[in-house]
Amino acid sequence: MTDSGTARPGHATTSRRARTAWGAVLLLLAGCSLLGPPPMEPLTEASLAAARQRWQAHGSSSYRAVVRVRPPRAPVEVWEIEVAGGTLVKRTRDGHPVGGADRERDDYSVQGIFDLLQTDLRWTTIEAVGDTPAVDLRAEFDPETGRLVRYRRTVGTTRRRVLLVEVLAYEPASGLQASAAAQR
Q1: Residues 1-57 pLDDT 10s
Q2: What's the alpha-carbon Rg for the chain, to the nearest Å?
């Protein structure tokens, strides 16, 4: 504005451009945070071995975890896992204790998930159909401990079957070791 109360030539245009630019930046930042977590990396023997090594070096032998499993063509399951001193001491599926045959098959502890990923890596030997791979394995591991954060297995090309495993909560717990010793 000048002393006479009139706008300086080009000043309103510059101010409007600045506001538009800031608005675009804010919209871009908001869009990035709303798009969800970063994409998962392809699961390979090397990435799994590196995650296992980080877990051995920095993981906890006692912890609690909540894991959501979305199997293909089946209801979503939520698993609560408790490991003490490296031993699985408690496991529930959708709030109900798990025992019997399910106890051997469904292990969503960190070690059990590593074993699942190792088994799934065998699928990568299946030939691609055209330019589409028969299986796509994607994983995200915690950069510090190596434990799984998210995993997606997609099988098939036209009728895709997708398994999604997500660790919703993870809490290392030193007091669980005493609980495991008392149960032995």
Answers
A1: 555 555 555 555 566 776 666 655 555 555 444 556 567 999 999 999 999 999 999
A2: 25
- For 8-132, list the strands marked E by DSSP: 41-42, 63-70, 77-84, 87-93, 96-97
Taking alpha carbons only, the member of 94, 64, 102 closest to residue 78 is 94
- Distance separating alpha carbons of residues 108 and 115, to the nearest angstrom: 9
49 φ, ψ to 5°?
Answer: -60, -40
**How far is residue 78's CA from residue 167's CA, in Å, rounded to a whole number?**
10
Instruction: Single out the residue of 40, 99, 90, 96 nearest to residue 65, CA to CA.
Output: 90
Alpha carbon distance 97, 103 (integer Å): 10
Using DSSP, how many helices (H) and how many strands (E) does the chain show? 5, 8
Q: If you search the block for the tokens 């706008």, which residue do you land on?
A: 7
User: Which tokens go with 160?
Assistant: 């895709």
Question: For the chain, how many residues are written?
Answer: 184
